[in-house]
Design goal:
alpha+beta; Aminopeptidase; globular; about 170 residues; about 25% strand; seven-stranded mixed beta sheet
């Protein structure tokens, strides 16, 4: 029986468990595309302190199951302080729960976040294996470039039309 997944805002006490989940995904899933040395370095950078810091400048969420275990995370922020541009900073799903709809739930949360809703352009620095996932949501290669950048990410972006919900008097 599948457990019920809830998306909620990250709190500082989530940091250790979330960092452990991210590290596990990096070292078991992403390692296939990037190699062990880079993923060990990336995992060390995505420690609990980093996640706490991220949560203070971004809208950061965790996915929890019915026994309150963290099975995913995701964050969105303004892109370089540009009010109508955003960046999806991270989306991770616990490796044994991948392809169970948790990533879709997290993307739904991020795409309904106020930062996303006020943005005309949203960028994602995607892992190689995550590109097909993000393309399902309308993201495409930034500047038509399908190769990884100098950080190993494939830059994807989405353009939106923002509707004003008010009428001029």
């Amino acid at each position: 029986m599948a457990s019920e997944i809830t998306i909620r805002p990250f709190v500082d006490t989530d940091a250790e468990e979330t960092a452990a989940m991210v590290k596990d995904v990096l070292l078991t899933v992403n390692v296939k595309d990037y190699g062990e040395a880079l993923m060990l370095k990336t995992a060390a950078e995505h420690d609990a302190a980093h996640l706490r810091t991220m949560a203070h400048y971004a809208d950061f969420y965790v996915a929890v199951n019915d026994v309150n275990e963290i099975v995913g995370c995701g964050g969105i922020s303004n892109y370089w302080d540009v009010p109508q541009e955003a960046i999806i900073l991270t989306v991770f799903v616990e490796r044994h729960q991948q392809r169970a709809g948790i990533g879709h739930k997290m993307m739904h949360q991020l795409m309904n976040d106020p930062v996303f809703l006020r943005s005309k352009r949203i960028e994602i620095p995607a892992a190689v294996s995550a590109v097909p996932f993000y393309k399902q949501f309308g993201f495409d290669y930034k500047d038509g470039r399908a190769e990884p950048d100098d950080e190993g990410n494939i830059r994807l972006e989405l353009f939106r039309t923002i509707k004003n919900d008010y009428k001029k008097a």
